[in-house]
Write a structure and sequence with these properties.
328 residues, alpha/beta, TIM Barrel, 2 domains, 8 strands, binds flavin mononucleotide
Length: 328
């Protein structure tokens, strides 16, 4: 059980990050075409799960045959984790959990969750205890190095994690104050990796083979990629091939078409017509975003952007996507 992370990181040291609104099943299926490592879900509210909230429970969905999926939970109340886990494990196949203790978004922090947990370490410890006493499934903890440069808490958190049976620690090597743009603290990753007894997964600004190597040279067991995969899901292949992988615009087009097909399948799983329509509209917006992100390095991407935003319906969107990627 406790070797889940270590065993899988030994097979592939790359990890696909939890990203709200992005790590959805159809996109996770795209990622799987490019690597065989661990993939994280979007964050899921334990409050929502414990109340059997429909939306929260839907976040647990996998695409057919999906494996090596870690479900990320968030919440501030220790006992709610154990309530949520009871609900989940009665009805869903779970391989592993993660706890979000890094999100700096105010809405999340208001419920004492995300990076608010780094300011309340007794609460963080209680959450770890509550999970460990509720399940034998492996679980990881995802943190930032601290609140700001003066309040670094990674050492205390490592002690808590190791003491409470956490199976891997993911460190986004920035502080909460840094948000998403401060310097990545490779020195801290090196320090933690040298003394940890559980696997350490480093995270922060890995966009190519060189930045992967830089992070790997700190001694971490795994490297988690977030924004890099959102624009370039084939980045995993680029890194695995030491930079020797490229993808044609025709192949990108196929990825997008397959993804939209999977979005439709996902939407059709909803119970009522209204829910199906709502979901497909939501996916349409996400599909536009991915179509634009994937076009980043291609010719005439700016015109494509303008054209795409003028489309009235999905048929026009599909025509634009088809024309652009076939001629790029
Ligand atoms: C749009 C977006 C959504 C994110 N959603 C989550 C989330 O649900 N859970 C989480 O732990 N981190 C989330 N993150 C943080 C990333 O997982 C990652 O820690 C951060 O972006 C740093 O990695 P990067 O430099 O490779 O992007 C999100 C980041 C972005 C940009």
């Amino acid at each position: 059980m406790s070797n889940f992370f270590r065993d899988n990181l030994n097979k592939s040291d790359l990890v696909a990050a939890p990203m709200a609104g992005i790590s959805i099943p159809p996109f996770r299926k795209v990622l799987r075409k490019f690597f065989d490592g661990l993939v994280y879900s979007e964050m899921i509210s334990v409050e929502g799960l414990s109340r059997l909230g429909k939306e929260s429970v839907e976040y647990l969905n996998r695409y057919e045959g999906e494996r090596l999926l870690v479900h990320q939970l968030f919440g501030g109340n220790p006992s709610t984790y154990s309530e949520a886990i009871k609900v989940i494990e009665d009805t869903h196949h779970i391989e592993a959990y993660d706890v979000n203790a890094g999100c700096p978004v105010r809405k999340v922090m208001k419920s004492s969750a995300g990076s608010a947990l780094l300011e309340d370490l007794p609460r963080l410890r209680s959450i770890m205890k509550s999970i460990r006493s509720s399940t034998e499934k492996p679980f990881s903890l995802k943190i930032r190095v601290g609140i700001d440069d003066k309040k670094l808490v990674y050492n205390e958190v490592l002690n808590i994690a190791e003491g409470e049976g956490v199976n891997a620690l993911i460190i986004h090597a920035r502080t909460k104050k840094d948000q998403f743009s401060g310097t990545v603290r490779y020195d801290i990753l090196e320090e933690v990796a040298s003394r940890a007894t559980i696997p350490i997964i480093g995270n922060g600004s890995v966009y190519d083979y060189d930045s992967y190597l830089k992070m790997k040279s700190t001694g971490v067991d795994g490297v988690m990629i977030a924004r890099g995969m959102m624009h370039t899901p084939w980045l995993f292949k680029v890194i695995e091939s030491k930079g020797d992988y490229s993808i044609s615009s025709d192949e990108i087009l196929l990825l997008l078409l397959d993804m939209y097909q999977d979005m439709k399948v996902e939407a059709l799983r909803r119970d009522s017509e209204i829910e199906r329509l709502k979901k497909i509209n939501h996916y349409k917006q996400i599909f536009i975003k991915f179509s634009l992100w994937f076009s980043r390095n291609l010719r005439d991407a700016t015109t494509f952007r303008k054209n795409l935003y003028q489309c009235k319906d999905i048929n026009e969107i599909m025509d634009q996507v088809d024309t652009f990627y076939k001629s790029a």
